[in-house]
Amino acid sequence: MDKPKLDFSDIEIRAWIKEKLTHYQETPRAGVPRGEELPIPRHKYHAALLMLRYGSKDYPNLLRIAKETKTTYTLVGKWRNERKFQKLVHNLAEEFLATWFEFFIYLSNAADAHSDTKEGDSDRKLIDNIQYLCRFTWGEPLQAGFYQRMMGIMEKADQASTSQVRLVQIMEGWIWSGLSAKRKNSTIDLKKQLLQVCFERLKALAVKAVEDSDKEGASRIIETMRQTAANLSDNYWELVRSKAVRGKVGA
Known about the structure:
With 251 residues, this protein is mostly helical. It contains 10 helices and no strands. The protein has helices at 13-22, 42-50, 62-68, 73-80, 83-113, 118-137, 140-156, 162-176, 181-211, 215-245. The protein is elongated.
């Protein structure tokens, strides 16, 4: 697979949003015939871009997006319920994720191919950085799109790969690390269910690796499964304890 011709701004969501907004050409509304769809104004397009980070620690609510786009909370809330706006957010997420997955899988494969070289070490450090940024800068629309793509990858996979393991590690990180406290509590159950589906698929891949005498691949997957299972358990009880402290559930 040839190396994708990408810059860091193509895979880092904050830089990607800045780049998209910089090159956005707002179409004048004057002259648009009555009844035809109006073009999207710049501040609304900006809000759609920032929705890709909605639910992260930097953008825990719509008020933060409204402030940055110099509009009102009420207006952003109204946009969020519009089908046209929802479609725009979805399309932006898909555009970013298509590029991101292409680069990440290439980089993961390259790191494995050069495992004992300085180039491989450099690739692995970049992978670690990308995984960290995903956990703390991606919002719910990107996470939802990631889950959908991830499920497709796991369903079609016919062999164990380090890329799959690294992608699952990103998902595991979102359960506890990437969201604001409020949204963390409201979404953790769904994230756990999705991760458990991938957990079962990893189990099948581990069995396949053993059958193919790929001991290294099987060991790598089993270790990820062990860590994921431990984190799922720890995070669940931590969530219960945090709710109990606030009096939302019994101690």
